[in-house]
Write a structure and sequence with these properties.
The complex is a heterodimer of chains A (412) and B (297). Chain A is an alpha/beta fold and 412 residues long. In chain A, 53% of the residues lie in helices and 12% in strands. Chain A has a five-stranded mixed beta sheet with strand order 2-1-3-12-6, with helices on both faces. Chain A starts with a helix and ends with a helix. Chain B is flat, with a radius of gyration of 25 Å. The relative contact order of chain B is 0.13. The chains are: A alpha/beta (412), B mainly alpha (297). Chain A binds chain B through residues 66, 69-70, 73, 77, 92, 94-96, 99, 186-187, 243, 245, 375-377, 379-381, 384, 387-392, 403, and chain B through 49-51, 68-70, 135-136, 157, 159, 243-249, 259-260, 262-266, 269.
């Protein structure tokens, strides 16, 4: 009797297990979008995916990408892959693709003409290894922005600068009024980010591409880049009094008018929006520091690990096309403050700064992001150098340039 | 059964139950610790990036390691931190224990107070001290608002002394444990020895220095091993307090290893750094173990 009962129970569980997948397929998606605006944006993806009859299982990993990526990678290499995962555009997942751990999306890409809709084309090229498509770009983020506080300049009695040189010239007036001219957090990614923005603005896109793209150590040690280091030295002096850690604390100094400006990517825009400020009236944004109006095409992509389960594999395809559909692109990017990856969508709700970005994008003045050009290994060394440079007033720009050229010569 | 008993029992099969019971532990030590260590050392000679691969490049990873300013800063920091931590935690820990040993009132209360920080993790300790040492609302702010407006004390924002700011937090957290171990050692000393010393008219401090401390040798060695282990692996305290800053001036080797293995996606470089850490431990431990265990034979 007891055995019969047990067999019955076992049979029942077995039946349940088989019945499960026939309903909606659960797909776990990992990402590191956990701040207010980011969570709202990712909820748009979840909503759209749930509407297709599947179920989005949210696998948010708190902390930054630096915290999340090791967890994602160890899950994929450790044989416990998720349904889909975020990475930045570029080479972060390169080795995972080469090791055959990622799913080939070429068929879907051809069917949905990704080649024709995704703009700029370089984004899809990043996802392509040996002629096969392995990921799907979802947004474009750029670093090339100088955010200025109109209030700080009004208090100091100088007009709001229109480019980097005017900003440097206004620094003494700002200091006299008790303001920090430039707000920078001392974290490595912030300082090296500010430097590469200076390189694009002052050195120009070609110099940038030669240094970060071709790893030309001669150019990196040459006179053009020396000018960039001179500007970085100015920036270092201007930020000497900013004692904040995180980027959003630095942005907050600009919002409250305690600091003149900040070099930070377009994600800073969300902070101004949350604070209820209006572009042009309360703050000013200068793409390319007002010198070279080009933007980088960094951002986020989704990769789909190779799964054995056929139902989940099908759901992966559904998720990929949902993410790229025009409606989702608009809903997601408006919340995220980033630019959509397709040019054929309507973004009337965008604010002034975002429209400036869209404009530059439409003109095709784009350059690849550092993540797309250098490996994480080389970028870590560059980050370390600038963290040291900005925190050490005794380190001369010449010394720093020599070390930078050395890193570039060994970079890959 | 009889047949077996009549033979001389083999050494291997004596205490068979105990030996079987310890097999998992032996396997664990051999496969995970020794095996993992050997694997790491072997792969430190390869150019492994995100995934380990056996493409040997000789000593390249080590040349690069010792040419990296960040690693040199990390090693220097560890040396300063290690030396100070060892000396001060032993000194303060012993002093506190000796004071508590004077049969004072409320000894339990004091012991609890001193040991309490040890119950906190390094992350919590680091955050607490990050706030205490923050110039805007920590010690400096308090002293300034008392009237000394020129008072400056912000070790965490000064790259030349930042490592001492971390040391303060580590001492606050760790000395309680040292104190407790020392107290146990002191309590283990026979009361008659104290009486004999007093009869001979030896001053208390001399009794401590020349009689009690030499007798506490086993406790001292245990304490030393515990402190040394905590020094080499210091990581979370730095992450919580400064995350290596300002710049790279409070980096430590363990942080370098972690960041190159997982953030920079360069396993080979991380393995080379961790092998160097292992080597430094071996250099310290082998002569000591030789003296300690070699002599007994």
């Amino acid at each position: 009797m007891r055995y019969k009962l047990m067999t019955a129970a076992l049979a029942a569980t077995a039946a349940l297990q088989f019945a499960g997948p026939a309903a909606a397929t659960d797909l776990e998606v990992t990402h590191w979008w956990t701040s207010g605006g980011e969570a709202a944006a990712v909820a748009e993806f979840a909503k759209a995916f749930d509407a297709t009859g599947n179920h989005w299982v949210d696998g948010a990993i708190a902390g930054s990408g630096d915290t999340a990526r090791p967890i994602m990678i160890s899950r994929i290499t450790g044989g416990d892959p998720m349904g889909a995962t975020q990475f930045n555009h570029g080479r972060q997942a390169e080795e995972l693709v080469k090791a055959g751990l990622m799913r080939d999306l070429t068929d879907l890409a051809t069917k949905e003409h990704w080649k024709d809709v995704i703009r700029p084309a370089s984004l899809l090229n990043e996802c392509t290894v040996d002629g096969k498509v392995y990921c799907i770009p979802v947004n474009i983020h750029s670093w090339q922005w100088l955010w200025l506080s109109n209030k700080a300049f009004a208090d100091a009695g100088v007009p709001v600068p229109k480019n980097w040189d005017e900003f440097v010239a206004a620094a003494p007036a700002l200091e006299k009024a008790g303001k920090i001219p430039l707000a920078v957090g001392p974290q490595a990614w912030q300082t090296s980010g500010a430097f590469q923005v200076l390189m694009v603005a002052i050195g120009g896109p070609d110099i940038y591409k030669k240094v970060y793209g071709d790893k030309d150590a001669k150019v990196a040690g040459g006179p053009e880049v020396a000018k960039v280091f001179k500007a970085a030295d100015d920036a270092r002096k201007m930020q000497a009094k900013s004692k904040v850690q995180d980027w959003n604390q630095a942005t907050n100094l600009v919002i409250t008018g305690q600091a003149g400006g900040q070099i930070m990517g377009d994600w800073a825009q969300g902070e101004f929006q949350v604070a209820g400020q209006t572009a042009g009236k309360d703050y000013t944004c200068l793409p390319g520091l007002g010198v070279n109006a080009v933007i980088q095409t960094g951002g986020d992509s989704f990769y789909f690990p190779l799964l054995k389960d056929a139902d989940k594999a099908k759901a992966q395809e559904v998720l990929a096309s949902t993410m790229l559909s025009p409606a989702t692109q608009v809903a997601f990017n408006l919340k995220k403050g980033s630019l959509p990856v397709r040019g054929d969508v309507d973004l009337n709700a965008a604010n002034d700064c975002m429209k400036k970005g869209l404009d530059i994008l439409a003109k095709g003045n784009t350059i690849p992001d550092t993540n797309q050009l250098m490996t994480e290994d080389s970028l870590t060394q560059v980050n370390d150098l600038f963290a040291e440079f900005f925190a050490t007033p005794t380190m001369t720009p010449e010394d720093a340039q020599k070390r930078f050229a050395d890193i570039v010569s060994k970079a890959d | 059964m009889n047949e077996q008993a009549s033979r001389r029992p083999s050494r291997l099969f004596r205490n068979l139950n105990a030996k079987i019971a310890s097999i998992p532990m032996i396997l664990n030590a051999l496969v995970i610790f020794l095996g993992g260590t050997i694997w790491t050392v072997v792969y430190s000679f390869t150019d492994s990036r995100l995934l380990p691969r056996l493409n040997f490049v000789g000593l390249d990873q080590y040349y690069r390691l010792w040419a990296t300013p960040r690693w040199l800063v990390a090693v220097e920091n560890l040396a300063i931190y290690g030396a100070c931590m060892l000396v001060f935690s032993l000194l303060i820990g012993f002093l506190l224990a000796a004071l508590l040993d004077q049969k004072i009132r409320f000894e339990d209360t004091f012991r609890t107070i001193f040991l309490y920080p040890f119950a906190l993790s390094f992350i919590v300790t680091g955050l607490v001290w990050q706030w205490i040492l923050n110039p805007n609302f920590g010690v400096q702010h308090v002293v300034r608002s008392l009237g000394w407006t020129d008072f400056a004390f912000d070790p965490l924002y000064d790259s030349t002394i930042v490592i001492y700011g971390i040391l303060i937090a580590a001492l606050w957290q760790g000395t309680g444990l040292v104190m407790c171990l020392m107290l146990a050692g002191l309590r283990g000393i026979d009361e008659d020895i104290w009486k004999a010393a007093r009869v001979d008219g030896i001053p208390t401090w001399k009794t401590y220095l020349f009689i009690i401390i030499p007798m506490m040798r086993p406790v001292l060695i245990t304490t030393l091993v515990i402190i040394a282990a905590s020094i080499v692996k210091v990581y979370d305290l730095v992450v919580a307090q400064t995350s290596g800053g300002p710049g790279i001036s409070s980096e430590v080797p363990a942080k370098y290893v972690y960041e190159y293995m997982f953030h920079a996606q360069n396993l080979g470089q991380g393995f080379a750094a961790s092998t160097m850490m292992l080597l430094s431990v071996i250099i310290v431990i082998v002569p000591w173990a030789y003296l300690e265990f070699g002599r007994r034979k």
